[in-house]
Amino acid sequence: MADPAIQTHGLVKRFGDLTAVDGLDLTVPAGTMYGFLGPNGAGKTTTLKMLTGLLRPTAGRATVAGFDVAAQPLEVKRRIGVVPESLGLYDRLTGHEYLELVGRLHGLDAATVQDRRARLLDRLELAEKAGTLTVDYSGGMKKKLALAGALLPDPQVLFLDEPFEGVDAVSARTVKDMLRTLVDRRGVTVFFSTHIMELVEKLCDTVAIIDHGRLIASGSLADLRRMATADAAASLEDVFLTLVDAAPRTAADLDWLAGA
Ligand SMILES: Nc1ncnc2c1ncn2[C@@H]1O[C@H](COP(=O)(O)OP(=O)(O)OP(=O)(O)O)[C@@H](O)[C@H]1O
Ligand SMILES: [Mg+2]
Question: Is the CB of 43 within 6 Å of ligand 1?
Fold first, then answer.
């Protein structure tokens, strides 16, 4: 069998006394749409940062596309596309210039950059804003430009931290179609975090749920449902709430909200 696209062994990240990622073992086969879920503060962004070389693990090992993230960071960076949680888009560049920079950094020739850039901007409905500085983009536009930048170099593995946050329904559909096509036709691996359960249900082949930096469940949605409940029709939201053992708090005791 081919190497997994992503593999981690006992991955740990500590910030002082806080253990944000606590011995994570993940295996993501190539050509998988992998949803990475967990409550706020679970350690998703920290994990994504370690896998993309933005943060050094305290302990453990990770490989991406067969290369060791710590020992072979350039080999990894050449093969991945990243949409981070906080977008660093170089405020003083226009969308056009940003994508030009991304293409050149990946060593693409000018004609290829120009062609892919025009098509991505058009498909993501950003063409009209291509000449505007990114500092003046709306939140959703920034997210879409970051996605365009991640897709432009034709990556083998995509790491997307909440890629749909703030993206309108039309563009979200476009992005979903693009990602599904990349996975199905090209065997690209997409590893993404999100809080949108409906999207995960529709899009993902495999789901992992982490909490307090630890993996609490992974598998297909059907596997997770079996772990959580006897109800074969349970939604991912129900499954998630059961597995992270979090009963939603009602507003009843917040008297000014509940009108008591
Ligand atoms: N640079 C840092 N210094 C100290 N603590 C940090 C740092 N980055 C993250 N943390 C802490 O690590 C834990 C995990 O944070 P992380 O950003 O990975 O969570 P997350 O799963 O991405 O959450 P969210 O769904 O809110 O984005 C949190 O308790 C957070 O406060
Ligand atoms: Mg996060």
Answer: yes
